Amino acid sequence: MATQGPGQNKRVRGPRAPQGPGRRPRAPISPRPASIGGFETLRKRLRRPRLTGRAMMIILVVAVLVISYASSLRAYIQQRNDINALQTEIAERKEHIKRLEEQTRRWEDPAYVQQQARERFGYVMPGETAYVALDENGERIQTEPELTDPDSVGSAEQPKAWWDDAWGSVLLAGDPPEQTGDGPESEIDPPKQKKD
Questions:
Q1: Is the pLDDT of residue 26 over 70?
Q2: What is the pLDDT of residues 41-78, one digit of tens each?
Q3: Where do the domains of the chain lie?
Q4: Read out DSSP for 153-166?
Q5: pTM given for the model
Q6: How far apart are CA 117 and CA 124, in angstroms?
């Protein structure tokens, strides 16, 4: 080996193995004779996992992260439930407001006001006679006539054209449905006479 002087940073390397296609293959490694004690120590190492300080730190960090994320997740789920409950309440209140506005509009209709006066107070128009229908027990029969909403009157189903019905009858005459019953009665029973 050469001595190194100041300012020299040479590393001494060992001889290099031949490289490339002329390289000799390595000799196979002979197995070591196994002793009984070697198997016992190996078995003990496999049975008893070693818990290092690094593994303890990783477990501690993972535990802290799981706890912090679990509490954050719980708070998130609670907030989502609160938001859903509030949205449901808002939708219910909007529906209630809509019904109240509809009822207010109906009170502007004179026919509805007249109907309510007849039902609630028993009022009649001048020249009319009020009749009350009673059942077999003498109780008033509760009828519930109701006027339709003025806004929904015009939204009824459009009437069909007359030629649709006529064409439907032509199609039915050309392809009549099959008879499922026995047909009409051949004889008619005479009417029964009342006995005095």
A1: no
A2: 767 666 656 678 888 899 999 999 999 888 889 999 99
A3: 39-144
A4: HTTSPPPPPHHHHH
A5: 0.35
A6: 8
